[in-house]
Design goal:
By secondary structure, the protein is an alpha+beta fold. The protein has a single domain, classed as Alpha-Beta Plaits (2-Layer Sandwich), CATH 3.30.70.120. Helices cover about 30% and strands about 30% of the residues. The protein has helices at about 55-75, 105-125, and strands spanning about 40-45, 45-50, 50, 75-85, 90-105, 135, 140. A hairpin with a 2-residue loop joins strand 6 (about 135) and strand 7 (about 140). The radius of gyration is 22 Å and the shape is globular. The termini are far apart.
Length: about 140
């Protein structure tokens, strides 16, 4: 039977058999697949205090952050966005930020997290920030 214009096709209810359900996107993990369940995001600011930095300095910050994430996790992705936050004096500030995301496993991250945290806190000071945004597993932390 051909569907008629404006009419929705009736589809029978799909039932999930327990043998096909899993917490993974696959029934079984295929050979050669690596699962990296931990997600870490660093928000790299384009400012030093209230001064916008030049494009070369912003690029250098992004490259330095990417280098760290690659060394910690094996890779990362980067996108540019507009970040907004409330400053200490209550003003809402909007600025360009780079959002760099790395993925890793729990054992690997556990052995490297102290170094990562120290690096983030050092960058907060070096980059002249009141706080530096860091996201871990969907939770945002201001360091």
């Amino acid at each position: 039977m051909e569907p008629q214009a404006g009419k929705r096709k009736v589809v029978s209810q799909f039932e999930v058999d327990d043998e096909w359900t899993s917490a993974l996107p696959f029934e079984r993990i295929p050979k050669g697949i690596t699962h990296l369940p931990l997600e870490c995001v660093v928000y790299v600011p384009s400012t030093h205090g209230d001064r916008v930095i030049d494009a070369d300095e912003f690029r250098a910050r992004r490259n330095e952050t990417a280098t760290l994430l690659v060394s910690l996790f094996g890779g990362c992705r980067e996108s540019l966005a507009t970040g907004r936050y409330r400053s200490v004096d209550g003003e809402i500030i909007a600025e360009e930020v780079a959002v760099l995301t790395g993925f890793g496993d729990a054992d690997d991250f556990g052995s490297k997290r102290r170094h990562f945290l120290e690096w983030l806190i050092d960058k907060r000071t070096e980059w002249g920030q009141e706080a530096l945004g860091f996201e871990f597993e969907g939770d945002l932390w201001y360091l």
